[in-house]
Each structure stands twice: as structure tokens, then as C-alpha cells.
Design brief:
Elements lengths: L7 H4 L3 H15 L16 H14 L5 H6 L4 H5 L6 H16 L6 H17 L5
Length: about 130
């Protein structure tokens, strides 16, 4: 990275952006009868929220807290115990897209990069027909 370049993490304002994005995302998940059963701690999604926020912060150039505390992300392996088909993928992506669309002052290019990443990641985790 060039000295005058900033990370996406920095461009969106750091941790607060990701924490708010994840909070909005889980508002949808908490009401979704297709996705909520995939969360072992359905009654308290705070752990899932924290893990996702930390992962996204790290992925987009923020602190490495996720890997420091949990090791390599290994997203596909971590999600393998859960049946994730096209319906779950689409529901997950729908809630994330909704959360992203509510982000204030997000530059359209960054919104597109986030959307592209989330679509790729959701597709990568499908493990069932």
C-alpha cells in the first residue's frame, strides 16, 4: 500500500461502521425463521455479532483482533456444521444488503466493493443443495 493510501477500514470510519453494519444485519437475522436456527445461541446473538464485526474489520484492513483471538478465519470450515443451501445464502445476503443500504455516507464505490465481497462470501459458504 502506498503511504498516502488508506484502508477500507479507515475510509469508512473504523470500528463504529462495522459494529453498526453488523447490528443492523443481526436485526434481520433475529427475525428470520430460516437463518436463526443456524445460530446455536439464538437467544443471545452478541457473540456472533462480535465475531462477525471483528472478522469484517480485519478483512477490510483494521486490527487483527479476530485472528489474534480465534486463529485463522477458516470461514468454510467454521460454517461446515451448518446446512447452508441457496435459500440460506440468499437470506443471509438479503439481510446484509439491507444493512449495507442503511449505511450513511457510504461512497458508492465502497458500497459496491462490500456488496461484491458479501455475494462472493455467501456463495462460498454454500455446502448443501
Amino acid at each position: 500500500m502506498e503511504p498516502d493510501e488508506i484502508t477500507v477500514y479507515e475510509a469508512v470510519g473504523g470500528a463504529p461502521f462495522f459494529e453498526q453494519l453488523v447490528e443492523r444485519f443481526y436485526e434481520g437475522v433475529a427475525q428470520d425463521p430460516l437463518l436463526l436456527p443456524l445460530y446455536p445461541e439464538q437467544h443471545d446473538l452478541s457473540g456472533a455479532k462480535r465475531r462477525l464485526a471483528l472478522f469484517l474489520m480485519q478483512y477490510w484492513g483494521g486490527p487483527t483482533t479476530y485472528s489474534d483471538t480465534r486463529g485463522h478465519p477458516r470461514l468454510r470450515m467454521r460454517h461446515l456444521p451448518f446446512v447452508i443451501g441457496e435459500a440460506q445464502r440468499d437470506a443471509w445476503l438479503g439481510h446484509m444488503s439491507d444493512a449495507l443500504s442503511e449505511a450513511e455516507d457510504l461512497h458508492p464505490e465502497l458500497a459496491r466493493r462490500f456488496q461484491d465481497y458479501f455475494a462472493m462470501a455467501a456463495a462460498h459458504l454454500v455446502n448443501a443443495p
